[in-house]
## 1
Amino acid sequence: MRTDTPQPIKLSDYTAPDFLIPSTELDFDLAPEATRVRARLTVTRQGPANAPLVLMGERLRLINIRIDGQPVESVVTDETLTIASVPDQFVLETEVEIDPLNNKTLEGLYMSSGRYCTQCEAEGFRKITYYLDRPDSLSKYRVRITAPRSGFPHLLSNGNLLEKGDLDDGRHYALWEDPFFKPCYLFALVAGELDVYEDTIETVSGRTVDLKIYVDTGMKTRAAYAMDALKRSMKWDEEVYGREYDLDLFMIVAVRDFNFGAMENKGLNIFNASLLLADPTTATDADYERIESVIAHEYFHNWSGNRVTCRDWFQLCLKEGLTVFRDQGFSADQRGHAVARIKDVKALRARQFPEDSGPLAHPVRPSSYVKIDNFYTATIYEKGAEIVGMLKTYVGPQVYRQALDHYFAANDGTAATLEDFLAAFEAVTGEDFSPWMAWYTQAGTPQLRASSTYDAAAHTLTLTFAQATPATPGQAQKAVVPIPIRFGLLSQDGDKQMFRHDGHLASEALHILRGADTTIVLTEVKSPPVLSILRHFSAPVLLHIEESGNDAFARFRGDPDAFNRWESAQGLAKRIILAERPDADLIDAFAEGLDACITDENLDDAFKALIMGLPTESDLAQHMSPIDPAFIHKNRNNLKSALSARLFDTLRDLYRSIPAPNTFSPDSVSAGRRAFRNALLDLMLARYNNAENKDELIALAESHFGQATNMTDMVGGLLALTYVQGTPYQNALDTFYDRFRNEPLVIDKWFSLQAAAAHPDTLDRVRALSQHPDFDAKTPNRWRALVQGFANNQSVFHAPGGGGYQFLVEQILAVDAFNPMTAARLVEPLSRYRFYTSPYRENMQTALQTIAAAPNLSKNVLELAARALTEEHS
Ligand code: PHE
Ligand code: ZN
């Protein structure tokens, strides 16, 4: 292990800044390789009288620096600028030169498709000018941008446009002012040629807000859906959270080159184009759904993030967890609560649960970090959202709204902490919420055990709940956490059953487990019950119910809680797939249950599509020790193929009964119908290798693909042909490529679909694709399409020879040389090597060691590789 591991930053070391910068004036003279940035900062001391002024700055060429108009001595390092002695109040003027064209980190000011754009969260502003680049430093900004008029007709920044005009030499300028105090990570600038899709909205108090979405020229119509989603988000936040927009202008810009999804800069959101542009022929229903939720997410940040921001980056989930919870609520209202919840839990299990059980496990509020960029994780986002959801479940919707109103009012215009968030719940309830803090400070997924005994004579049910959280790196001892458990009872036939609890007769109740274990007694339970625990997934825990093997079937048949109905199917599938030998009776029973679901006219199509989906290979791996990826892959395929054979006639009848759509609407009912139809096709094709009707199957898949009138069905057809391989698959891929060769977002899909194919040839194909003329590691969307698509492809990534790991190592090291933030995000797939069986385990470890030993590694990648390799795992 290397010894030059960078020093971590600790939450316990937090101190308030020694200086305030109440006003910030920036003047940008844009040029691709030599942009001049002049800053005029008013600075006031709030710390000790002798404290030096230390500003952050990276990759800046200092040209000029003055205090109150006078030249001043400063000491510049790679990361800071220090002035030893400064007055208590002064004006600091600096001028620096930066090189946006060659900035491939995509942080600070950079160029994408010939346009200037910025990304400052978390610590990118220091690549623009010397500054107090920390979220508790709030300032009012005035920004002047100068650029040639030709090529850069639009000059955008945060807030309101004060002035614009022409200058000599074909140049022009714009002057922007943001009336709200903000931290520098919310600063944004965009300059270039763009088309604008415009609309307006009237807010609840009657103000008119101009809405402008800026996209690549020629792409205007593809912004229509994002605009629609934006207007619905704005209305929803007014109605559901009482939050009104606060400027007269709201702008969104789509860019091709972006490290993450999107960014909530005040009044000027910047989006990865893949999360903004949509039309039926290029975007899938999943894309539409993501766009809707990310538009909402970034817009909602205007209150949860911007008006109330974070004191320090340890509080990241204060804005992210809350904002994810808010966007999930919005999506659920738009698309149906049960289906939305199932999808959210699937995502949580796919990404957060593995993270929380491996060497990279960290609390939702970490206590130390090397690079904060590495903490934009599923834990901080998704587990953070779950905590807010549990608080809401606990206090109920009305009190939750009061608590949030209180939180926004009490902290408006400040940089807050998680303590401030919980204090709002305390203020409106008068209760002590400190036990909830353990959810924020403690890593690891709690395990919840439920068991019961039924007294048939007394008609009572004694229910026992117990919790335990396994040790995680650096945290051997775990405290108990409050766990909201929503539960109900069913009869053995799967009908709902009443019971008396806390004096109420009900079919569902909520219990908060506060200690390590508890026992509660339900009375008036008429018949031997089946438990339905953790309805709507009321807490992010791993549930184990002690029950008879048939109880899951009762829930599968009729649990009125749609989440638990879906969950029962997942559990049964897991049981079948992970068994040492196949259990034909169990498979028959499962197939019958599935048959009943998919032919039930009372269930909606989106739900049917979900219940047909078997647990993913990575989810299954969580339940196997040691993990054998080949075993999981084989058994999962076998179950799919068995279901396909048993249900084939039903699948074909249902498939034929749903006409191929010839008009497109992105609404959730239409999307559900497409999802169901594609799921039916997928399951029919799943038995391809064992099928006698191969020609029929090929014809089905080819016509599905060939007749597709939208991208969802095209992708569905391609995926179906993946089972077939050979010429039909290659022909479809070629057709797809030829048709969309000029559509970068669709060519991204072309790369990722091939990388995700569970086929032994995939590694060779992926290697070849990494040499394809359209492959470009400098564009994160394209790089991730291939490399992340591949790393998530369990059976191929974990090829026995270790070749998949080697490919990933090469890719991470290549990208780390210019874009550490993006490279580091792909270390995670190697991190859980200890949980795998040989030889996977050794091969993964070797791959990680190769990364850790590489010369000139970034802090980002080094931090993750070092944490993954640390011996201590408790
Ligand atoms: N704050 C962004 C969000 O809404 C995420 C992000 C972080 C984007 C860092 C870019 C860089 O989730
Ligand atoms: Zn966010």
## 2
Amino acid sequence: MSMIRIRPVKRLNGEVTVQGDKSISHRAVIIGSIANGTTTVTNFLTSEDCMATMRAFKAMGIPIEEFDDNKLKIHGKGLNGLVEPPDVMDMGNSGTSARLLCGLLAAQPFFSVMTGDNSLRRRPMKRVVEPLRQMGARIWGRRGGEYLPLSIQGGELKGLFHRMAVPSAQVKSALLLAGLFANGRTTIEELLPTRDHTERMLRYCGVDLIRKGTTIAVEGGQSPSSRDIEIPGDISAAAFFIVGASMLKGSEIVIKGVGLNPTRTGIIDILRQMGASIEMDNLREMGGEPAGDIRIKSAPMKGIEVRGDIIPRCVDELPVLCIAAAIAEGETWIRDAAELRVKESDRIAGMAECLSSLGVEVETFEDGMRIQGTKRLKGSMCNSRGDHRIAMSMAIAGLAAEGETLIEDTECINTSFPMFEETLQRVVVGR
Ligand code: S3P
């Protein structure tokens, strides 16, 4: 089992880039594979999760060339170009791969089976399986289709209207992808807005989508056109550095070329509300997505209440937000975040255990937690529970803690941010 040892540092300083956005990288492979023609993808995230998606499309007969510098050439074969994979497809730790592909596979004229690692095989799948079944899909799995492995006999689908019970971009995306192949119109209603990368990329590739208020709809039979995609840096990766620089006195860093899609920037809004100094600059568009540079200077932060609409806009950043809350003045409340219980691990239980090991007072609820800020974090020994975001959050906490912090089970970082330690080394100013 690999581990990371973190010593306290003085501050963070300098200019960095973070790796390509994970959500957008998955979508580039998926949409590029069903587009007509060749898609060149630059700044693709070569992490384990995105490689699982890529392997699946290679297994379904899509030639994908990989070059240095995180560049891919995907030779898409259009809506009817995928072929039956000859073996079980392993999605590893990646919920996005499993759920988005479930939508796509349900519509293919072949049989497929997908599985995943210990964590993924415990994550709920009925949220995609049920609406797909209503579209006509034939899907089998443990507990009536709740858990992987899933076997899918694809076939003709009909459009449906679906109101999402939980805000989930993965469910929305799975249904939009299935809807591309379905007869008629597929409409999804979301009660709270979730990340809209699938919609943006489909539109960027010429697919017509109809947005009306809280609904998004797609008419079946539209094939995306291939178009080159430059992937912006991942704001979820940048978040570790934003929190680190905000809390270490005297820090100033610039993170270049980060995706600033408003459905993802909740962490910036929250940290600013806590008192952080974060400026955005050099705003531009990358592959149909808003992007820019982010400048962070350290600033004193105070606790706040985080709940409601903002939760889906910062859902993956809540673990590192816990670290900001731990050193902020006063209490921070996180509520309406029950989804954290079914991520790569139960992140409410996992972060509560880690925060306690740092000497932080924390109370948990079914849908969140209360964190009492403290001026002093003590170095600790903790376990990530195989969850990449908990591992990296604890590494950031360790920079500000007294003594040494030892984080066990850190291979999981490779699922989303293989360059995490190198990137951190570039900006730390030692004691
Ligand atoms: C993702 C959606 C979110 C997020 C996950 C990536 C995506 O999951 O937590 O890391 O790429 O669509 P949910 O759809 O379960 O909220």
## 3
Amino acid sequence: MQERHIRVAKFGGTSLADAEQFRKAAQIIGENPDRRYIVPSAPGKRFGADIKVTDLLLSLLKKDVDQSKILDAIFARYDEIIEGLDLSLDLSQVREDIKKALASDIKHPECYVASRGEHLSGLVMAKFLGFEFIDATEIILFDAKGNFDAKSTNSVMSKRLSGCSNAVIPGFYGAMPDGTIKTFSRGGSDITGSIVARAVGADLYENWKDVSGFLMADPHIVDHPRTISTITYRELRELTYMGATVMHEDAVFPVRESGIPINIRNTNDPDAPGTMIVAHTDRMDLQNVITGIAGKKGFCILIIEKEMMNTEIGFGRKVLSVLEKYNVSFEHMPSGIDSLCVIVSERDIAGLEKQLMDEIMITAQPDVIRLERGLALIAVVGRAMKSAIGTAARIFRCIAGEGINVRMIDQGSSELNIIIGVEEASFEASINAIYRTFVK
Ligand code: ASP
């Protein structure tokens, strides 16, 4: 007997923004019978100034709003989709349920209202495809404290889905043991898709968006950056940590554990191969060397100097104990013989600057401590860097060529990334210089 392959296909908000987008999604699903489990988001923006359905739903909880007007706007969007798809589907019960919930004292009302967007999308999609609708409250489980319960979810979900060859499962939410609806953080339908992919042992988790994959750099900074064709989970983590966005960060964990690749695809350009996110790959881009560049502004450096610091055992611990006390995490900690720099985010230390410095002064007794602001960090990430001699030299040469001063350097021990710190004002120019140097 031929082995049956399984793909889980998740469609984001812009991929389901109106009837036409629903049709495109359905066409994609119909083209490959392996696409058996579908995870929809709530309809997103149709044009720049449009409002996402999830945001409309959340606005129901604001003070002094006309709830029935907002409900009209929300249901008008679904009615338009239903009409555009020539379906006959009555959603009035869901509207009644929302009204009832708004009038009563439910737990986590923001989760409840926000979840209805995916719920409604799921009902429409299931009807349009002729697939079974399985409510996420049945198979995505949170514990009594509201934390996602991965173990129970996996066993309940795999059992439920093993008896069902095709299903639509709304993204973004699940239920606590008492039935209270709980959502993941915003953008969380990505996580649902990943959880479903693991539970059914999918060969591939397809994440359909409105972009043709993960770009090598931020398109707001670099003009038309190239799409990354293959990236490892580790590289992805480095880039998303430094601000690149393509998918919810937590969506990687469930599939990563079971080695299921993720394919980021574009609903509006289904022939484009998109980006493959994999556990390991032998495919090295030795021509471009780097996989991607990302970065963030808003960091500062605590510069701490003390004569004979190198011989003082426990100096670093004393400094870090103060950061720990104030719940401040550090990003990097390059050091010299008699000096230590601690890079922290401006946001983490806002309002605490003086206290922190005073306390480090008392605890570690340095000769000098000062704070320099306005640092931007840039991560140059690439698995091929390990085998390409001179990568660091090329980065520094091109930055120097722009007349930019590098204020900090840090290379991860895995040689997967090189992090540099520059003045915030030089951030964009540095990224462009690096991109131009490496990407052919
Ligand atoms: N609809 C939710 C949001 O806008 C979840 C999602 O789309 O993934 O955040």
